[in-house]
């Protein structure tokens, strides 16, 4: 059969049409598949909208709670709560590097959400009524209360929140740049709706809570003011208190706002009961105690074991006008100690640091100086279930094994480090001999009674101190260091000098206490990681820069369950203790407090706070009794 001359053309056109149809069909099917996958992905990405948020998702209080369980919702308002501060101040701006901020000066400012005192890691709506976030916490949207107002009557808006984040990163303390480095952007979605988006790959477990806790500043207020400038001008905030009066370096007080916008919120009911909060400053510990006895202020937490053990016998206490008591502290007891400046070559060798630690005789100090009321600190999470004990568990080893190159062998071969136990006599020759052998091994030999290295450099250290009350503790330590052949001196400075020298790392050894959380996370970056080791004013006072510690901090941040967190913190605690970055001092599992008997408080205190300035109240009947007796 003869073909038509047009047949090939017709076939080609038909094939082309078929191919186009098939391609269109495939494209349609592909588009449909993509659409289905997108819908499925959106369905799988569950969006949580809640009145609160916690690290691991559990909240004690439901959306309709009226107040926290531990407050007295009917607590009366009135009276003054006053306490004391050490040293001086020259600023009311606590979020910048310049100046020394007055105590309580953060009280001007509020945040989107606020924590409570009977949960370790929950937050509930304050300026924000609710929060929205996906299960992976890659972003968080806060729906703000339109009734929130600054103390000048202007509204608190999403634009203020965006401004606050940006100004903290740009002009706040340098450590904010590290803490907030996992934030990708912050944007106002409307006048009362703000969104925080976090970087891909970041550990987002607690980033929404970090965002929720940032202070909120007025964008309009700082339009013609320099945020980074230290000033005693009362700042504009939205909180329950405004400045009452300030005498530079001497006293500062804050008065409760009658027009405070948030006083009836569930998170505030029963709180902020005092009409006035005041701080009286003293440059001398003894003078501060005498001021309390003389009635210059009405509440004191006592940190001197000597004063607590010997000086609370004055007439007002004997007559029952002053109450003295101990309240259990159920928070981790903190990490108080002598901290080495690891930026200095003489402290690079961990054997040197361990030897210097052995020269501090806690057992003698506790008996002779502390009246036996303290226990020795050996953990960064002392007095908590986060403290490492014994040999590392298999779960801890899973985190520690990959980091062997940057950790001492003792982490894997010995129980968690605890300080040497000395005899309860100032000179324990056996312990000092062990310390001397460590110094020898590190290359610091005794030559003519003084430790020297191969270059002939003498081992000299200076301990910085701004508290005369600490001299009686430091001097015996210095004597023991001298017995090791170390040229040790105590450098007494005032509080302002100490603060500036610490900010700029101009010291050999300083005393500091860190307060540790039961749900640690981002704050550990500021304390212990390489990123903050050389940032002026950072909390990493010792200049620790160790890749293993950096990795363990990340493990803590990314823990998805409370059990995982406990393991990661114990591994971190074990590693930190092995490095001998400090000489652990002591702790007291109680708050030692004394106060004029004009206060009342709830019968049962929450586990994580005494709440003395928060939910105690001034008792007019008690005050009348003291006034009638001439004690007020």
Which key features would you list for this structure?
632 residues, alpha+beta, D-Maltodextrin-Binding Protein, domain 2, Dipeptide-binding Protein, domain 3, five-stranded antiparallel beta sheet, globular
Q: How is this structure best described in words?
A:
The chain is an alpha+beta fold and 632 residues long. Among the domains are: 49-66 and 110-220, Periplasmic binding protein-like II (D-Maltodextrin-Binding Protein, domain 2, 3-Layer(aba) Sandwich), CATH 3.40.190.10; 335-587, Dipeptide-binding Protein, domain 3, CATH 3.10.105. It is built from 18 helices and 26 strands. The strands form nine sheets. A five-stranded antiparallel sheet has the order 1-6-7-9-8. The protein has a four-stranded mixed sheet with strand order 3-12-11-10. Strand 4 and strand 5 (122-125) form a beta hairpin. Mean pLDDT is 92; it is low at 1-44.
Write the layout of secondary structure elements.
Blueprint: H1 7-44, E1 47-50, E2 52-54, E3 80-86, E4 113-115, E5 122-125, E6 128-134, E7 139-144, H2 158-171, H3 175-179, E8 183-190, E9 193-198, H4 207-212, E10 241-247, E11 251-256, E12 276-282, H5 285-293, E13 299-301, H6 305-310, H7 315-318, E14 322-328, E15 335-340, H8 350-358, H9 362-368, E16 375-376, H10 394-400, H11 410-413, H12 429-441, E17 445-447, E18 450-452, E19 460-465, H13 471-483, E20 487-492, H14 495-503, E21 509-514, H15 523-528, H16 547-558, H17 562-578, E22 582-584, E23 586-587, E24 590-596, E25 599-600, E26 617-618, H18 620-628
Helix pairs in contact: 8-12, 10-17, 16-17
